[in-house]
Design brief:
Chain lengths: 263, 321, 275
């Protein structure tokens, strides 16, 4: 309990400081906020244009696809706001030789890196996703309380997958120093999560469900919200936890290798 | 005994990297490993309240030692016990009681005032409000930065910033503090302020381990000096002993009104004759007293300009090796 | 005339700077090789998307499924030939004050930056374009043969210049703004959306297509891609390939003038403020 309180204090301090940093350059901050908001509308915009041209994913209405994309954006927005910055933070610190400063602090490096990376810019991303999500939910049959409950549970799993990704990425940056293209790899892999799983080939569907649980990012939460019972849901939920466990193992192994190689 | 280091060894493994595209592809599958011995088994102990200067040229193993002592790096073998902890094994518990200031690695946050950045450490080290207030007030008045801590860090001078770095590092009242080049790039006044602060904290019982290239830092602060070179400790004793070891050498560069004679002078050796009027010489102050020598030069040749320098740290090491 | 040319073009400088940049970036091979993963996987997603969208129809906005896949394949490949960081680089130089060193040299920084781009993209050609082309051609069986090699190459070169001029002009805003990363990413999103990187421009509403015809962005990527497949259409306007390439050329010159104008304003501001 005390540890949880300490952790909350760490994050709230990190947020206060992040906010103060944001406000140091107010103009730039507003633009970045707006850009995050806009760039999030990109994929929904393309989806909208394509559907307006008369095409459609078989079995998926425009609103249903937007629901997936809205959830995807919300999850990424939430992650960006609260923890995904740890990737950038650790990457920069390792590159500039400042990472040692994190190791001489008496707290978890992961939490410290996450807490000190807070920037309100990223709330633009969260808001954009939320807007699309609300629009899409209002256009599908109203979900009941059970659907909502299942959705929130799966949304947490979605965040856990993103957290796992942040560990895999920052762990990689211990070795692959200064490579910002890791974000491109991440965006490319997770792109599969922006669309209904059913459009992919069987092999890829299995890959996205049982190996790298990208289907959990948005597809599964969206499916339960619209009342479906998608196959593989429970097993995929378990896989998410395994994925998280593997990510932690990987991260600590990379940290240990950093600590014995001396950066 | 506060710090005990025994037979500490560290071997780095580097991988050879080819230049061409083909070699880069090859290196993914097979890499040639090269072992570099950074520490060859060093041992020393430090008592509470000491202020130890850690010296050595670049690549001597200085920073490897400090990294191991701060729990950042795993050694290859050997034993380290600090305040009852093994740094790399009990990292979280251990580092709660230490502090560190790195002259070239800022812990402050560029765009916001130091006083806000301090709050981060308050949260990290779980410092209670009352204790935090008291410590902050004490450090701020000792370092005379009442005004500066409220100014955005990017607007501070290097000296002001360094003083704030010290606050950042000592808010949690560490009993052991590691300093790495804490005065690098500072002007004389700023250096003096920092040194006075270190002295005062040391008098209050804080143990300092100081690595630096600046011999002045060591002379003003440390009573004990550990010299490290090529992964081995080559000297571990008081500063006075180091002086004795060295002989009392000074470098004198002089410019005169009348042409200088190149004739031999006991205890003096000409290193460089820039012209008849300007020369650099090495003086052994055990044979000839510095004051007397300068007086002699002035009377005979009329000094127009004169500098006296200590032998640089690299020379000391050379003479010890 | 010769003097005018030498102001804007210096062959020896070009080769020297390009070679140096090539070597400098060659050290980051492993970073560049990331494209070998990103490019094909991105394409794979497009493949699944459009295969699903074409299940109940044979053409969409004049594209067949195969043509659509070629569109995305060629867009990816062309990007390897023309992308650059001129905007980021110039703003970084201004912000850090290192830009001053260029004012002291008797070369135009714009030409210097263009030469850097040539070297950088030469490396990208070997490490990104060629391998990804081979993957597209042999693994995905994309029929990546230009309708007309001459016009395709010419349009590609013009796209290369257009991309540079647009990015460089964005970089010039650094003379006025301290922190520009926000504004820059804002421009970059617009640039890519309106260049047709995410979806062919014919999917946009008719009025927007007409507007886009007059903006510089389509000449970066959309035009070279359409010239590659041998048919051009935007906003209901269908043009013969030589005509659209000629218009592209005119736009490159116009954009050059715009960047020159911005440059002069910027320099005035830079030196006016004092270094």
């Amino acid at each position: 309990m005390r540890r949880l309180l300490d952790l909350l204090r760490l994050y709230s301090t990190g947020m206060r400081i992040g906010l103060a940093e944001d406000l140091a350059y107010r103009g730039n901050f507003l633009i970045r906020f707006f850009v995050m908001f806009l760039s999030d509308l990109l994929f929904p915009l393309v989806t909208l244009l394509v559907y307006r041209s008369g095409a459609a994913f078989p079995g998926w209405s425009l609103e249903e696809v937007l629901l997936i994309q809205g959830i995807f954006m919300m999850a990424k927005g939430f992650a960006n706001l609260f923890f995904f910055g740890l990737v950038w933070n650790i990457g920069q610190m390792v590159r500039d030789g400042l990472f040692d400063l994190m190791l001489i602090k008496p707290c978890s490096v992961i939490h410290l890196a996450a807490a000190t990376s807070f920037s309100l810019d990223n709330s633009g991303s969260l808001l954009g996703g939320l807007g699309i999500f609300i629009y899409a939910v209002s256009r599908i049959p109203t979900p009941g309380p059970w659907e909502w409950a299942a959705f929130f549970l799966l949304f947490l799993l979605s965040l856990s997958v993103l957290f796992s990704f942040s560990l895999f990425m920052s762990g990689t940056l211990f070795k692959w120093v200064g490579n910002s293209r890791i974000y491109e790899i991440f965006n490319t892999i997770t792109q599969f999560g922006l669309f209904p799983k059913t459009i992919f080939s069987r092999a890829f569907q299995n890959l996205l469900t049982y190996f790298i649980p990208i289907a959990m990012l948005a597809f599964f939460p969206a499916a339960v919200l619209k009342g479906d019972k998608p196959e593989g849901l429970f097993l995929s939920g378990g896989i998410c936890l395994v994925f998280l466990f593997a990510a932690r193992l990987f991260w600590y192994a990379m940290l240990k290798s950093y600590s014995s190689a001396g950066g | 005994m506060l710090i005990e280091v025994a037979e500490l060894k560290k071997t780095y493994i580097h991988y050879e990297r080819g230049g061409s595209f083909l070699e880069a592809v090859k290196s993914i599958f097979h890499r040639k490993a090269i072992a570099v011995e950074a520490l060859k088994g060093i041992s020393f102990t430090i008592e509470p309240g000491e202020l130890v200067g850690f010296l050595g040229p670049n690549g001597a193993g200085k920073s490897t030692t400090i990294k191991i002592l701060t729990g950042v790096l795993y050694p290859s073998s050997g034993r380290v016990q600090i305040a009852g902890y093994v740094p790399w094994r009990d990292r979280m518990k251990y580092v709660a009681g230490i502090g560190a200031v790195f002259g070239q690695k800022s812990q402050l946050i560029w765009d916001i005032p130091p006083v806000d950045a301090f709050l981060m450490n308050k949260a990290i080290y779980r410092i209670p409000d009352k204790e935090y207030r008291a410590t902050l007030d004490m450090l701020v008045s000792l370092l005379e930065v009442e005004r500066h801590i409220k100014t955005p860090t990017r607007q501070l001078s290097l000296g002001e910033r360094m003083r704030c770095e010290f606050i950042m590092a000592m808010l949690h009242r560490p009993q052991i503090v590691f300093l790495d080049e804490p005065t690098i790039g500072l002007d004389v006044v700023a250096k003096e302020k920092i040194r006075n602060f270190i002295k005062k904290m040391n008098e209050q019982g804080v143990t300092f381990i100081l690595t630096t290239h600046d011999l002045d830092d060591v002379e003003r602060l440390a009573r004990r000096v550990i010299l490290i070179n090529r992964g081995e400790i080559v000297f571990d004793d008081t500063l006075e002993a180091l002086r004795g070891y060295l002989g009392k050498k000074k470098f004198v560069t002089v410019r005169t009104a009348k042409p200088l004679s190149t004739a031999a002078f006991p205890g003096m050796e000409i290193l460089n004759a820039f012209s008849e009027y300007q020369m650099e010489m090495e003086l052994d102050t055990e044979t000839v007293e510095l004051n007397a020598f300068i007086r002699y030069l002035d009377e005979k040749y009329e000094i127009k300009d004169l500098t006296v320098e200590e032998p640089p740290i690299e020379d000391i090491l050379k003479s010890l090796y | 005339m010769g003097k005018l040319v030498s102001r804007f073009f210096n062959g020896r400088l070009l080769t020297a700077v390009a070679a140096a940049t090539y070597k400098e970036w060659a050290a980051y091979r492993s970073h560049i090789l990331v494209s070998l993963f990103v490019g094909p996987v991105y394409f794979l997603v497009q493949y699944f998307i459009w295969s699903a969208l074409f299940q109940n129809t044979t053409t969409l906005k004049g594209f067949t499924l195969d043509e659509m896949l070629v569109y995305y394949g060629v867009t990816t490949l062309i990007n390897y030939c023309i992308m650059d960081f001129a905007d980021w680089n110039l703003q970084m130089l201004i912000r850090t004050g290192r830009f001053v060193t260029f004012l002291l040299r008797p070369v135009s920084h714009r030409f210097f930056a263009l030469s850097q781009k040539v070297g950088h993209r030469l490396l990208g050609f070997w490490l990104e374009f060629v391998p990804v082309y081979l993957i597209f051609f042999f693994v995905f069986r994309l029929p990546l043969v230009p309708a007309n090699l001459f016009w395709s190459l010419l349009s590609l070169v013009l796209g290369f210049l257009m991309m540079f001029l647009v990015n460089y002009s964005i970089g010039i805003t650094g003379f006025w703004l301290v922190r520009t990363d926000g504004l820059r990413s804002f421009f970059l999103i617009f640039r890519d959306v309106f260049a047709g990187v995410f979806v062919p421009l014919v999917f946009f509403p008719g009025w927007l297509q007409k507007v886009l015809f007059f903006l510089p962005f389509q000449y970066i990527s959309y035009v070279p891609v359409r010239v590659f497949s041998g048919s051009y259409e935007l906003g209901g306007i269908t043009l013969a390939i030589p005509v659209i390439v000629a218009i592209q050329g005119v736009y490159v010159v116009l954009m050059g003038l715009v960047s020159e104008f911005l440059w002069r304003l910027g320099i005035k501001r830079f030196t006016g403020v004092g270094v």
